[in-house]
Amino acid sequence: MNLVLWIVQILLAAIFGGIGVVKLTQPKEKLHETMGWTKAATPVQVKAIGALELLAAIGLLLPALTGIATVLTPLAALGLVIIMIGGTVVHLHGVRTATAPERRTLEIQGIVTCVALLVLAALVAWGRFGPYPL
What we know:
Layout: H1 2-25, H2 28-31, H3 43-66, H4 72-97, H5 101-129
Helix pairs in contact: 1-3, 1-5, 3-4, 4-5
């Protein structure tokens, strides 16, 4: 199970590290093409979410690899759970307000993605807080 947790941690760190960098480096207007929810957010909100995702990605790996402050790894996973709850709520709102069927489909895909990432982050938080600490 420890190996599974490491694989999930690396996967989550790659996903959230990459998307966090994109949100931090791209202008909000460019993000509209692939992240429709950014239309309703301010540029500061988009950058803040990107920074939190990048910090969580670092927190999933760096403490675990160095053995320093290892409690930060499950805390980072817990932070991602909270971010994904927020993402799910945003996409649920998008489903309710979407008028075009294509937009509704994209929002449903966003919900499925958020829930899947939430489950993976919750697995890491549970495992690292509980039976498989670092």
